[in-house]
Amino acid sequence: MSAPTANFTISTTALIVPAVFLSLAICCVGLRVYVRIGLLRSFLIEDWLCVLTLIFFSAHAGLLFGVEASLATPKPSLEVYEKIINVSLATPEIAW
């Protein structure tokens, strides 16, 4: 018996890697904010920049997830639209 192998594609990897790093970033920035506010009682400019960077990274990962999801969904067939265009182009103009 052979061990089962995982079928990782580019699309799967493109979703897993940002998800892992996004969760790590949220944990790290959350811990940093907790320590700086809760324990040290000093929240400086570099802490605000960490939070801002996390917001930008979250937006970037969200857009990446959205693009991957839109690429993974099947596209509708354009045959119907092509037939409509061909029929409308084939009909003669009506003179009023």
Record the SSE blueprint.
Blueprint: H1 10-39, H2 45-72, H3 79-90
Helix pairs in contact: 1-2
Describe the protein's architecture and organization.
It is built from three helices and no strands. The radius of gyration is 25 Å and the shape is elongated. Helices cover 73% and strands 0% of the residues. The mean pLDDT is 82. The chain has one domain.
Descriptive terms for the model:
96 residues, mainly alpha, 73% helix
**Residues in β-strands, percent:** under 5%
Our count of helices gives 3
**First-residue to last-residue Cα separation:** 79 Å
Task: Give the low-confidence spans.
Answer: none
The tally of domains stands at 1
Helix-and-strand structural type: mainly alpha
How big is the Rg? Answer: 25 Å
What oligomeric state best describes the polypeptide chains here? single chain
Shape descriptor reads elongated
Quick one: biggest sheet? none
Give the gist of this structure.
The chain has 96 residues and is an all-alpha fold.
